[in-house]
Amino acid sequence: MTTAAGRIGNDPSDMTGRVRGFPEQMRRAWDLAEAGPNLIGDAEPERIYVIGMGGSAIGGDFLRACGERLGDVAVEVVRGYELPRAANESSFAFFVSYSGGTEETLACWSEAARRRVPRACVTSGGELERRALADSVPVLKIPPGSPPRAALGWTSVPLLHAMGRVGMLEVGSAEIEEAAQACEEVLREFGPDASPNPLRAWAEGLNGHLPVIYASDSPHRVSAMRWACQINENGKALAHTALLPEQNHNEIVGWEVASPVLAATRVALLDDPADHPRTRRRMQVVAESLRASGVSVTHFAPRGQGLLARLYSYSVQGDLVSLYLAAAQNVDPTPVVSIDRLKAALADS
């Protein structure tokens, strides 16, 4: 269902509008980073760490995916209370917390200070900004007021810009613009006004089923993760992911015996023509095998040519899937009651 205001389903906080505005968010994030401080400065790190949680951390996964293909320095994403033992003065750490109050990220900040890890932060404010300013650490302040999962442009593009600015990553404004245009293409093709709309049909068919998302490990580990996380938070549903070729060495066997669980699955293959040809062949064989067993399998392709375009266009497809699923269940995609309840319980302990 699409309302008269153009929102998908029961969407009083207009998550639909946030998804539609994502291409422009990417452009604005690049401009903000361009006008902002040099986050890395003179550091010449052997390894980059991105510290964050949830919707703030996913930007680090985009950076890692790009770093694997376009960069000269390895990127690792840290989700938790502790830094890896290897993090030291020869490393560099991006601290990303949209709210600025993420408990785990703040714990790592204190540890990084003790170890003298060069660092910078991307945040809309809060305690993280206060600590960074007190420690004379560069801060890129991003606009507040959004659920972190809807701020992917703000939490990923500045990281790409920072590494590109100092020559560690082959990314510039042209790549960001191509990615924004690829996302606009996805919104035209699969958005609320599109008909026919195979993405919407697949999402609506998920109601009462378990979505299983398969993708290539490199570079689409982050694409599969983004789909699952958006289905979790916006669609209020479980999702499962696995990556190829690793899936062929273990999980593929789990499909051999028919069961009610398997019958209730719907498989999405993030099938990028630019993936390694052997990975694509493996994906084809898996799809044929699953279909022969009566499993529903649907292929989804990215848009654009460059790596960033392909990654971000998949991300917007996942956003739309999650909104269509929320509408099919008549749930508001914006609130995250379970997360709020957990935070309240932790605050009391």
Keywords, please?
single chain; five-stranded parallel beta sheet; Rossmann fold; 2 domains; alpha/beta; 47% helix
**What is the number of E strands?**
9
Helical element count?
13
What class do helices, strands and sheet pairing give? alpha/beta
The CATH class designation of the largest domain is Alpha Beta
Q: Share of helix among residues?
A: 40-55%
Which overall shape is indicated by the principal axes computed on the Cα atoms?
A: globular
What is the CATH third-level topology name of the largest domain? Rossmann fold
SSE string: HHEHEEHEHEHHHEHEHEHEHH
- Oligomeric state of this protein: single chain
- For the record, the CATH architecture of the largest domain stands as 3-Layer(aba) Sandwich
Q: Record the strand order, biggest sheet.
A: 2-1-3-4-5
Q: Give Rg in angstroms.
A: 20 Å
Quick description:
By secondary structure, the chain is α/β, with parallel strands linked by helices. The protein has two domains: 36-171, 3-Layer(aba) Sandwich (Rossmann fold), CATH 3.40.50.10490; 195-329, 3-Layer(aba) Sandwich (Rossmann fold).
